[in-house]
Structures are given as C-alpha cells and as structure tokens.
Amino acid sequence: MAAGIKDKVAILGMGCSRFGERWNDNAEDLMIEAYVEALADAGIEKSSIDAAWFGTGIEEEHVGKSAVPLSMALRLPNIPVTRVENYCASGSEAFRGAVYAVASGACDIALALGVEKLKDTGYGGLPQRNRGSVNDLFWANASAPGSFAQLASAYSAKHGVNKDDMKRAMAHISVKSHDNGSRNPKAHLRNKINEEKVMNAPMIAEPLGLFDCCGVSDGSACAIVTTPEIAKSLGKKDLVTVKAMQLSASNGTEAQHNSWDGSHFVTTRAAANRAYKEAGISKPRDQISLFEVHDCFSITEFVTMEDLFISEEGNAVNDVMNGFYDADGKIPCQIDGGLKCFGHPIGASGLRMIYEMYLQMQGRAGERQRQDEPVFGMTHNLGGFPHQNVCSITIVGKEGA
Amino acid sequence: MEVGILAYGGYIPQSRLQRSEIANAHTWFNPGLKGLAKGERAMANWDEDSVTMAVEAARDCLTELDREQISAVYMASTSFPFMDRQNAGIVADALNLNSSLQTLDFASSQRAGSAGLATALQVAKGGSGPILYTTAEKRSTKAASPLELTSGDGAAAFLVGQGKVIARLLGSHTEAVDFVDHFRGEGEAYDYSWEERWIRDEGYLKIVPAAVEALLSKSGVAAEDITTFCFPVAARGVAAMLAKKIGLPESAVADNLQANCGETGTAHSMVMLAHALENSKPGDKILVASFGQGSDALLFEVTEEIKSLPPRKGVSGYLARRYAETNYNKFLAFHDLINLERGIRAETDKKTGLTTLYRNKGMTQAMIGGKCSKCGTAQFPKSNMCVNENCGEIGTQEDYSFAERISKVNSFTADRLTYSPDPPAYYGMIQFEEGGRLMSDFTDISPETDIKVGMPMRMMFRVKDYDNKRGFRRYFWKATPADASNKGE
Fold first, then answer.
1. Which domain, by its residues, includes B466?
2. Where does the Thiolase N-terminal domain start and stop, copy by copy (chain A) (predicted)?
3. Residue that finishes a domain, picked among B288, B317, B334
4. Does A392 lie in the same domain as A336?
5. What is the reported pLDDT for A1?
6. pLDDT digits (tens, 9 = 90+) for B399-446
7. Same domain, yes or no, for A174 and A311?
8. Fewest CB atoms within 10 A around its CB: which of A66, A103, A199, B95?
9. In a domain, B110, yes or no
C-alpha cells in the first residue's frame, strides 16, 4: 500500500467568509473575503502561490464553468488553476488537489478555494435542475431531502428502531448543532432551537421536517498549504498537518444491486477504513478529538456516526441521546454549527469544515473552543444520494500525532 | 373459420371524483347540474393519458397469454396524446412487442371505439395472428359542463382473432350518418354540443335501432334472445327506451357504469363490453351498439372457452381498486382548468432529446434491463458491465424485462420539496424479487395507502414528464402497491 499523505503537507493559512444569504455579494466577493483572510493567516504574498484549485458545484447558478472565475477574482498571476466538481465533496476535492500537488513536490505552496452562490434561484432549497439527458428519462423525481429521508425508513426497518425514537434522535442532532452555531459569528443560522420545535416543524420529505434539513446559503472558504519544512521556514509553529484524505465513489452497487439495504453509506465506510489506516488511527472512538460531518440532513449525520465507526451499528440513537456528540460530549460533532447552521454552499462546505478543525487545533475557535486539547480532527462530505454518491474524508491533526 | 374475442381486459383509474363536489362548485352558476350530482366519476391521475390507460387495459387483457403471436395493435381514442406520432405504436412498445407488427390509430368519433373492434374482427377473418385492440379516453371537458360530470376516464382491450374465442362474432352492422350532435374542430380543446332532447329523439332513437335491426336481421338472431345490451350513452333511460323500441328484453339492458365510473368517451362501448364479458356465461348473446355519426352494432355469443380464460382484474377489478376523491380542485389542476401557481421549481425544462429517447427506448418504454449471462445477476438499467462486484463481466448483458415483475419497497419517502403536479412526490428504492432494483417514482398513492418497507409493488406505465413548451411527454414505469390492484384476481 502507498505510504499515504500523513504529515507530508501542512496548512499554512485558512480563511472563511461569513456564510448566509449574501444578497448583495457576488461569488467573487465571497471568494475574495475567504482569500484575504487565508493569505493574511499564511503570511505570504500572492506571488508565492504556485497553483490553485477551485471547487464549486452548481456553477450554472453563479460563476459558470472552468477555473477562470477564480483566477480572475483573485487576479492570480497566470498560474495553473483547476476547477473541480464532485457533488458536495467539491470543496474537499479542491483541497485534495492542492495537498497532492504539494506532496508531489510539483508545488511549494498551493491554494484551494471553494465557493457557492445559491441564493439567486428565487426559492428556498437547492436549485431544481436536470440530471443529465439519459438520467432524466428514468431517475425518480427526487430532491435531496427526499433521497436522504429514505435512510430513516430503511434504518428503522433494519434495526427495529421505532419512528418516534428516530425522530427524537434526529431532533437532538439539530438542536445540538444550533446550540453550537449560536456561538459562531460566521454561521448563517445562529438561533437556538428545541426538540419540540424540530419535531413539530412542517414536513419536507417524510420523516424530515424543516429543522432536519440544513440551510441553503452563500459562502466561500480557502486553504493555503505547503510542506511542513516550508511552513517552519516561514516561522510557523505547532503545525496542523494533513493525516489522511480519502475519497470513495459509488459504482452502482447500491443503486442497482440488491446487496445494499439502504440504511447506511457504503462509500463512507470504505473511505473511513482507508482514512483511519492512512492516519494511523486504530480506535477512532478513542482517538478522534472532533469531527465535522456532512449533516445536510439530521438523518445523514445520524447514520454517519455509525459509518465512521464511532458509534456501533444500531447504537447511534443511544450515543446521540446521551450527548456523546454534543459540544461538551466525548467527541463533539459539528462544533461550529455544521451544515445545519452554515448552510451548504456546495463548493465551500468541505473547506469550511477543515477551517474549523484548523482553528480548534490552534486554539483559535473563540467562544466555541474545545477545552480538551484536540489532536485529530476529521471532516466528512457526502455528495449525491444515499444510493449513488461520493464520500470524502479528511483527517488533520497536530504534526507528529 | 369463426372469429371473435380471445381475451378481454379493462382499466379504470383509481381516483373517483365525487360528482357532488363538482356540483357544489358550480350550481351557483348552473343549478341544473344538481341533477347530475349523484355518484362518482373515474379520474385519471396526472400522469395518465389515453395511451397509459390503454397499456394497462392491454396488460390486463394479456394476463398469462402469449404476446409473441400478436400481429397488430390498434388503438381508438378521441383524446390521443399525440396528433402525429402513432399512439398504438407507443402501446405496442410499452408491451415490449416485436416490431413485425401492424399498428393503427382510430380517431375522430365517439364511434371510433366500436369501429376499431369491428375493423379488427374483419382483419382477423383474413387469418393473421391475434390482433390486440385497445381503446381509451381521457376527455377534456370545460368546468361546469354536464360532460364534466357524466364523463369518466378508462380503457378496454381485446385480443381478437380465430381459434379459441371466448365470444364469437355473430355479426356486425354499421349505419354511417353525419348527424352532428357535438363536434370538436381543429385546434379546439373542448366539445361543442347541441340540445340533448334533439340528440335523443332524432339521434339515439332513430339511428341506433336502424343499425341494430339490420344486424339482427343479418345474423338471424331474435331481439328477445339477446342476453346483454351494451349501449354506452350516459343520458338516463335511453338504453331502456332503445331496448323497448327494438324489442330487447328489459333485463338485457346493461349497467352503463354511470354511477361508479362515468362515460369513458369513445372507449365506453368497449368498457361495457369487457364488463359484460366478465359477468357472462357460455351461450350469452351480447349486443353492443355505439353512437357517433351513425352507429355500429356488434353481436357476440359467449363460448365455453370463457371458462378457461386465466383470471384477470377486468373492469370490475379496477372499479374495486378505488379511492374516493373529494377535492375537485385537484381535478381542475390536473386538467389545467385553473391557473395554479406551481412555483419556480416547476419551470425546469423537460426537453427530451429524441436521439436520447430512441437509443434508450427499450429502457424507458418497455422497462428492459439486463441480465448477466455469466452470473445471472439482473440489473436496471442495462449496461455493458455487470453490476455484481464478484462478476463485472463485460458484454454479457441480455435483455431482461422488468415491467411485469413484482418488487418490494426497500426505502421510501413522501417529498414536498421537489416539484410534482400532485405533491407530495412519493418515491423509493424498490427491489425486484428475482434481482434488480430501482430508485423509482411511485404512483397512485392515495391518502389511504400505508406504505411500508417490504410492501409488494407492481410497475405501471405512466407519463414521466410533460414538456409543455414543446407539447411532448415522455413515459416511464412507476411503482404502485401491488395488493391494491389485485382485487379482481
């Protein structure tokens, strides 16, 4: 097996725009906001950046195709810029491109930036759009909530968990994330909610109510990466390095073969196994300090707790209800408020998650700073549908951990 | 050699709009509608049209019968979804029939339904393979028109030919009279009708007896020997008046299904014939007469073979598969009779690439998937690499039809976010018993349906999307609870 990415690349600087309904800003304005913070944090000049990766999902709603929009927005000096799109993992994919470029020795310093400007559709929720000329002939008329909602029916049937217990555990997840988001000045939704409010909210796609769904917002996040040696030469201490970057894409088994029961993510399990191995983590429940998962819907976060091998299969309800994942629990999940409170500007989300892990590792997370010193922080993106998707997992941590 | 009907099938949509709800909405304007406010009318779902209903009736007709020998597919309707694209051809495709086939549409008259059958019987005398004859109607009617109350949506199908006929043709006769009781001109959406009393006295009561009497005289059957008289017109008492005038036994007058279905337009004489066959016994003589610019009259005698016809749902089975719809606004919305705010999500362009469709026609219209000749794994859609992770063989996929297979629900939801003409949109992962699965739209989920993981589902041919910008529509198969549609079996 390949040696992997562990400790080969360090984060030099990061930035993140305020997420929200940025009615008066174009995607370019959001990009610059994230970039300015990242560049200042890195303490370098623009001219030191050797290459850039640009992550965005639904480009037809804002910047259009190619990497040119990033290069133009940041006035990059004609360096290589690559646009990546891989559903909701687009931001993490941009990061992976930059990290691999540095690890390969092709670049000393590389930039990854993700952005999405979703609030120009005229309605709530993700843009309704076509799925491809052949897919449109036979794909179900499925929205994102409707696709993910089905995890609940399959999970309940498999594990014999009754609907009410599921719904309450899902509600706890959303309440927890709103608590966390209320302490984050960059989050879109900063109000606290309670379980009753979640349970009684209007139904979006059964059993997901309004508060089981993450917000939709505009936002951008940016990372600048380099080798640990260069980072140190630039005066950086207590480096946060990349421990693992894994991606797993569905191959049609879940969608077309009867071996999948619909209650979990095949890709997440595959990516998690490889990521832990790459990071040298053998007991994730004991070793992961913090994590951000792709809580596009409460049910996604719920089953992901098991697919990342933190909760035992069939036991997520107990862990969730016991507060294991709360900000003051054993392993806080979405300590920044998650997609739930940040919304999900597709290209930005993966980098926004890494940004929080980076801040927490450095003790810079302000009011929501985890007091037990974090060692390993994990992020997870899940793009597509439970039956055909991409999953990306990134683990960052203290250098040498 | 004698010709006749080899098999029959019927289809009535599940929703039954309560006529009292229509009347309640409109008696302020036309108090006369109160007289039509009894009972219920069959109401097609938003994703049904005359082609999809014809397909269901045909599937019912072909229950446990061989499709290989079918030599022609005819369809009659005055509400065809396509003016230029053969509708019978879509039916044939959905039934996965081979292309060595004669296909033909019959249209433009309330008599098309019976004329199509008469023609099919004539052709069958030539000794070709069995002919599949279908007829369906989803009539467009103006709000508050009497026709809106008396009409219903539905379909019938017959396999016609020689050999083991369940009903032999004793004779047929047509009177062609250009009597214009109503018409629908080019580019018009709705019928324009003349006074009912004139239609009854000068139309029904003069033209139909002429056709029936000529038929009886030709076939040498006495009027009093008729067991069942199918006359499709909704107007009250007309069939009984005709029977009296012609000398048919009063008991022969068949139920015109006005109470629980409504008049299914040009298909209705055939829906009534299918219904009559369901309730018949060998030796029965069934007389069918229609009305529309003249009258067709056909006479059948039921044979012993009817006892060996495999059981089917028939009109009765589908009448029993019923949900009482009390929301007239839904009917108005389905028929675009109100300017509903559908939201920006409804604006998505539903353009179909005709090249894309033709290339994938087997997948979309016949629901053909693949089966690996090496490992036996079935998959949908068919692709040239086996989905079985332990196989993955290339080029081993053989055509494998999913349309008639039963599946079970693996997961599901009711989605209120995505645009659907009838929210919430129900869909879920269905898993076929013999292998293969699909994230599938569900259809005909009524408020009384309690969907559960593990629930058996069957596929139905439906409209997938309407492209209103270009007047096209694409079809695909959707899952519906199997139990609810099996009542007639």
1. 405-485
2. 22-227
3. B334
4. yes
5. 65
6. 999 999 999 999 999 999 999 999 999 999 999 988 999 999 999 999
7. yes
8. A66
9. yes
Q: What is the pLDDT of residues A213-232, one digit of tens each?
A: 999 999 999 999 999 999 99
d(CA A324, CA B38): 62
Count of structural domains within chain B: 2
- In this complex, do A157 and B453 lie within 8 Å of one another by their Cβ atoms? yes
* Same domain membership, residue A108 and residue A182: no
User: Residue B401 and residue A252: Cα distance in Å, rounded?
Assistant: 19
Domain at A29, CATH number: 3.40.47.10
Q: Looking at the structure, do residues A361 and A322 belong to the same domain, yes or no?
A: yes
Residues of B in contact with A261 (CB under 8 A): 410
Give the residue from A60, A123, A133, A141 with the most B CB atoms within 10 Å of its CB, the best one to mutate.
A141
Pair A172, A274 in one domain: yes
In a domain, A131, yes or no: no
Q: What is the DSSP string of B189-238?
A: SS-EE--HHHIIIIIIHHHHHHHHHHHHHHHT--GGG-SEEE----STTH
Bridge partners for B154 per DSSP: B137
Number of structural domains found in chain A: 2
Token pair of B82, please?
């396509």
Inter-chain CB pairs, A–B, below 8 Å: 143
A224 lies in the same domain as A252? no
Among the candidates B334, B354, B374, a domain finishes at B334
| C-alpha distances in Å from residue B319, one per residue of A117, B16, B256, B309, B323 | 51, 9, 13, 20, 10
Considering chain A, what is the average pLDDT of its residues? 97
Tell me how crowded residue B369 is: count the other CB atoms within 10 A of its CB.
27
Angle at A177 between CA A172 and CA A179, to 5 degrees: 95
Same domain, A264 and A147: yes
CATH code where residue B423 lies: 2.40.50
Q: How far is CA A242 from CA A11, A12, A379, in A?
A: 8, 11, 11
Does the complex come out with an ipTM higher than 0.85?
yes
Question: Among A397, A355, A298, A399, which residue's Cα sits nearest to residue A14?
Answer: A355
Taking the C-alpha atoms of residue B187 and residue B309, their distance in angstroms, rounded to an integer, is: 43
Instruction: Indicate whether A316 and A167 sit together in one domain.
Output: yes
CA distance B61 to chain A (A): 26
Contact of B89 with B358, CB cutoff 8 Å = no
Residue A2 CB-half CA count within 13 A:
9
Q: Is residue B396 part of a domain?
A: no
Among B387, B380, B361, B375, residue whose Cα is nearest residue B474: B361
A344 is catalytic: yes
Helix axes B205-219, B238-246, angle to 10 degrees: 40
Of the candidates B414, B418, B410, B406, the one whose C-alpha atom is nearest the C-alpha of residue B443 is B414
Active site residue A107: no
**pLDDT at B486 > cutoff 50:** no
- Would A49 be classed as within a structural domain? yes
**pLDDT tens readout for residues B202-221:** 999 999 999 999 999 999 99
Q: How far apart are CA A358 and CA A350, in angstroms?
A: 13
